[in-house]
Amino acid sequence: MNKGKHENKSARAKASAADLPVNAGYGANDPKGDDLARNAEDSAGEFLTTNQGVRVNDNQNSLKAGDRGPTLLEDFILREKITHFDHERIPERVVHARGSAAHGFFQVYESMAEYTKANFLQDPSLKTPVFVRFSTVAGSRGSTDLARDVRGFAVKFYTQEGNYDLVGNNIPVFFIQDAMKFPDLVHAVKPEPHNEIPQAASAHDTFWDFISLMPESMHMVMWVMSDRAIPRSLRMMEGFGVHTFRFINERGKARFVKFHWKPLLGLHAVLWDEAQKISGKDPDFHRRDLWEAIENGDYPEWELGIQVVEEKDEHSFDFDLLDPTKIIPEEIVPVRRIGKLTLNRNPDNFFAETEQVAFHTGNIVPGIDFTNDPLLQGRLFSYLDTQLIRLGGPNFHEIPINRPIAPMHNNQRDGYMRQTINRGQTSYEPNSLRGGCPFQAGADMGGFTSYAERIDARKIRERSASFMDHFSQATLFFRSQSQPEQNHIINALRFELGKVETPAIRERMLFLLSQVDKALASEVARGLGATVPAKLDKPMNMSIPADVDPKKVQPKRKNQAIETSPRLSMVDNPNFPKDNIRTRKIAFLVADGFDETAVAEMKRALLTAGAAVLTVAPRLGMLTGANGEQIKADLSFLTGSSVMFDAVYVPGGEESIAALKKENESANFLSEAYRHCKTIAASGAGVELLKNAGIIRGSAEGAEKADLTSGQPGIVVALEDDTKMAPAFLKSIAQHRHWERERAA
Ligand code: HEM
Predict the structure, then answer these.
(1) How far, in Å, CA of 320 to CA of 316, rounded?
(2) What phi, psi does 270 have (nearest 5°)?
(3) Separation of 95 CA from ligand 1 center, angstroms?
(4) What is the per-residue pLDDT across 564-608, written as a single tens digit (0 to 9) for each?
(5) Could you report the per-residue pLDDT of 503-518, keeping only the tens digit for each?
(6) Catalytic site residue 204?
(7) Which is it for strands 612-617 and 162-169: parallel, antiparallel or unpaired?
(8) What angle do CA 261, 264, 268 make, to 5 degrees?
(9) Kind of pairing, strands 368-369 and 585-589?
(10) Average pLDDT for residues 7-33, to the nearest whole number?
(11) Who's near 608: CB < 8 A, 6+ residues apart?
């Protein structure tokens, strides 16, 4: 045993945080990494001990009276081990239970002092550590990543002035306008209470029953039924703060602000059929993708965008800035990109970090403040409250992942699992016995002061008339989608409402959809074999107190400043040019006898462009090429599937293609990739495999001359001269999916 190592370790355990060497943890400029390192444990080269540090001699057998005798109560080692195991679980989050997280940092591009005094937004050279957790909302901790759902996008900034949490989603609006409805919404979408069915799915009666009675949800419903709700990767989705917040500058001037995260890899989704298949083949698809990208050094990046509105312009929109079911279209207030978030380190321990992290909309720093958005106001109560039970008491801020890097001093004391050993006689303020410490900080010393908003109002339970337009932005969203995206929304609604068993719920939904767009409603109705009702026999807006006149709160449409917003589409979005294939996964279908040159050339081109290549073959092990060169089969047709990839390439090699032709799975692989609108390429004899799978009909000779695109979108072939093939293949993959193929189908 290495005695010296033990001495070092105990010296380190005794050291206070201040004594620890800077960057003892995770590398340069990572103060949060250093902070976490204080609690890190690594048993490499160590003896097994009890929790009391006593070395364990036998971890195989309990202490018994005789070798077949009863186990003795005295066995403190067995008791401790089993007791700890018995208490390993904590409740999962009541929503957003399924999540994946990573560490990283944020840097502002230039000082934002004009808008906010927040310290982390002043200095472009300052790297603020962050921990970001992505999640789905409805499913349990073990549910599939590819559920149709909103994705949580929660960012904890460990700033020098304390923790700031931007707890957002990948959709910029929400289902409801008032926190009062949140428990109802969540009860409705979760598995039904009598039989706990279905898991991680909104396609059931209670969800659509609730939605059909809540017209305010229609804008959000459009987003959730769109491809935004089935992202290709957590790294390829936008994030939004949703609510309108406030920025306050040093002079005390306030402005409204909306937050956006813009992914530098672009904005991409999978198809619903793909999503369902991925859920079976690899339910951890998003988690694995995030983990692997970071392990490979492909650090995910987002730019932080802001939309700023002057206070004097608060009422100049055709919607209410406080209404969380509304966006400010980017065409009306452009998004300014002010800094970059980079995720560059996976957690060491899922439970300690990803599960125990506690985000809270109420964690803000000087320079940022809330607005009176009634949904936000409810959230300000909910997070700390739920975490008190989820994390077992009032001291969860001491858990390493939650503690700030800013110094923490106050007179809060005691409670379950208290870690801090507060020294001194006083735990109250004012005091004279400790010279008044800890002191309040003046605003000029960084003390937080709330924005002095003037409030002069009656105390009422009502909703503002300015919140009553529930359809205009739902229509704006639907009409801003490309044709294939509209088709996906229609099909998603047909799927979801098709799973609804109560006809009256479908009818109410069809009526609400007709208020968004008549053609949308009639297309959905056609798929359901139903008709769109001309009117409802009850008021549309049921979420109102009994004593309020329903006529007063019925949804009204407003004229909008714009008819469409291309930035709401994923396909036509000018913010995200489809110009790169970084981190895309490409399958090479190969067998013994493959064409080595074709494989090597194409692989080089793809790797140079930042894509990843995996070989899929009839069997695992080493494969031998036509000239005797060997490569490893990464996956077999049993362990790999086309839904795990963005594109497929079939290199030539007569023997390889003959072997692949014998495998039914190779044709399935290709035809599935084709149906999912992915780019498929083949060269030399590989073209035969495409014909075999029915992807290319007739002769491909003409196709080759037709710009290597076979005349079909996303099918790139070269019968003989494959030298020009790689650029055409890369360009086609960058398009992500060839939705035209769907239309043709
Ligand atoms: C009144 C409305 C809402 C209430 C009461 C509410 C409540 C909650 C609760 C209780 C949790 C679990 C927290 C935990 O156990 O640590 C949670 C998680 C979360 N909520 Fe909300 N929520 C509301 C609306 C929203 C909205 C509008 C958004 C997006 C802007 C959002 C984003 C999130 C995210 C991202 C998480 C997961 C945080 C994590 O990764 O740990 N919530 N919410």
Answers:
(1) 9
(2) -105, 170
(3) 7
(4) 999 999 998 999 999 999 999 999 999 999 999 999 999 999 999
(5) 999 999 999 999 999 9
(6) no
(7) unpaired
(8) 85
(9) unpaired
(10) 50
(11) none
Residue identifier of the C-alpha nearest atom 35 of ligand 1:
152
Partners of 614 in the β-ladder: 587
Residues 188-200: pLDDT tens digits?
A: 999 999 999 999 9
Q: Quick check: bond before 574 cis, omega within 30?
A: no
Contact 260/238 with Cβ under 8 angstroms? Answer: yes
Q: Whose CA is nearest to atom 5 of ligand 1?
A: 379
Give the distance (Å) from ligand 1 centre to CA of residue 202. Answer: 17
Q: Sort strands 630-633 and 635-636 into parallel, antiparallel or unpaired.
A: unpaired
List the catalytic residue out of 96, 219, 243, 470.
96
Distance CA 612, CA 602 (A): 11
CB 151 less than 6 A from any atom of ligand 1: no
**Spatial separation of the C-alpha atoms in residues 131 and 127, rounded to whole Å:** 13
Q: What is the pLDDT of residue 110?
A: 98
Q: Is 133 in the pocket of ligand 1 (CB under 6 A)?
A: yes
pLDDT band at 95 (very low <50, low <70, confident <90, very high): very high
Strand boundaries in 233-350, DSSP class E: 239-240, 245-248, 254-263, 301-310, 336-345
Place of tokens 């490979």: 296
Comparing C-alpha atoms, which of 555, 559, 557 is closest to residue 215?
555
* Catalytic residue chosen out of the listed positions 119, 169, 346, 573: 169
503-516 and 205-212 helices, crossing angle to 10°? 50
* Catalytic annotation present for 169: yes
d(C-alpha 320, C-alpha 315), whole Å: 7
Judge contact between 154 and 206, C-beta under 8 A.
no
Helix, coil or strand: residue 297: coil
Are 741 and 713 in contact by the 8 Å Cβ rule? The answer is yes
Expressed in angstroms and rounded, the spacing between residue 631 Cα and the centre of ligand 1 is: 47
What's the token pair of residue 194? Answer: 């009598």
Cβ neighbours, 10 Å, residue 744: 9
pLDDT in tens, 451-499: 999 999 999 998 999 999 999 999 999 999 999 999 999 999 999 999 9
Question: Of all helices (H) and strands (E), which one includes residue 154?
Answer: strand 151-159
Listed in sequence order, the residues at least 6 apart from 69 whose beta carbon sits closer than 8 Å to its beta carbon are none
Report yes or no: 307 and 75 within 8 Å, Cβ to Cβ. Answer: no
State whether the Cα torsion 293-733-286-266 is positive or negative.
Answer: positive
Instruction: Give yes or no for residue 95 CB within 6 A of ligand 1.
Output: yes
Alpha-carbon gap, residue 134 to 130, rounded angstroms = 13
Tell me how crowded residue 62 is: count the other CB atoms within 10 A of its CB. 14
Rounded distance from Cα 383 to ligand 1 centre (Å): 7
pLDDT band at 18 (very low <50, low <70, confident <90, very high): very low
- Is the distance from the beta carbon of residue 374 to the nearest atom of ligand 1 less than 6 Å? no
pTM as predicted? 0.94
Distance CA 172, CA 744 (A): 32
- Joined tokens for residue 276: 């369902």
Distance between CA atoms of residues 507 and 511, nearest Å: 6
CA distance 324 to 593: 59
For residue 353, the 8-state DSSP code is I
